[in-house]
Amino acid sequence: MPRDARSKASSEYCVNGRGAADVAACSARRPHAILRLVPLVKRNATYDDLCALPDHMVAEIIDGDLFASPRPASPHALASSMLGAAVIGSFGDEPSGGDLPGGWWILFEPELHFRRDVLVPDLAGWRRERMPTVPDVAGFELAPDWACEVISPSTGEIDRGRKMRVYAREGVGHLWIVDPILRTLEVYRLEDGRWVVASTHAGAEQVRAEPFDAIALDMRRWWREQ
User: Assuming Cys at both sites, which of 51, 93, 174, 224 could form a disulfide with 146, CB separation 3.0 to 4.6 Å?
Assistant: First the structure.
């Protein structure tokens, strides 16, 4: 196989499944809580280092540092899934001029390649006017118009610090920070390269949050029952 073909195949395999892993053993060791350990795996990391991690890990490279964490527990997964379903149901189609606005591509956990940084938001969205079709790529180099991070106690520092700075640098227009423990939503808008708070919400609100404020979203559906 030519070198370029091997490189492409390796890159695509890495994104879709980072090697073999004993997932059952991992699940047995994982605590049943939302807490996700985020160790600093390696400094001055390369994409090959990221690809070498097992497929049950969520891995990112930020400022040359490789971070990895297990797949999230149920409160995180529920919030991400329900929020994503609501946004995709209303906006994840071509603009129709009807009750559903459409006009976006909404993806779960896309891999974003920004220079040397590799980020994996819980959700991200591109306006179709900027990205008419979804490209067949291992990682997206075009910054999304919206990103959403569903945080846990152990990932909050990275999500609110390093990742927010990268998103601002790359010109992501809106960022949502969702906390399933506190049951809150923070909506940030990028203005002149800086994040400003567009709105904050909590509990069981019906929210109209930028950039999806054309439709009211029911936050009650995002949270696990007490």
Answer: 174
pTM: 0.81
Residue 174: name the closest of 188, 160, 162, 164 by CA.
188
Domain that holds residue 119: 3-222
d(CA 121, CA 159): 9
- Please answer whether residues 21 and 52 qualify as being in contact, where contact means their C-beta atoms are separated by less than 8 angstroms: no
Sheet strands side by side (includes 40-42): 40-42, 65-70, 57-62, 117-119, 112-114
| Amino acid in position 224 | R
Question: Quick one: which H or E segment has residue 6?
Answer: helix 3-16
- Render pLDDT for 25-52 as a digit per residue (tens, 0 to 9): 333 344 333 444 566 788 999 999 999 9
Pairing, β 112-114 against β 206-207: unpaired
Residue 131 tokens, joined: 């990205």
The number of folded domains in the chain is 1
Q: Residue holding tokens 């936050």?
A: 219
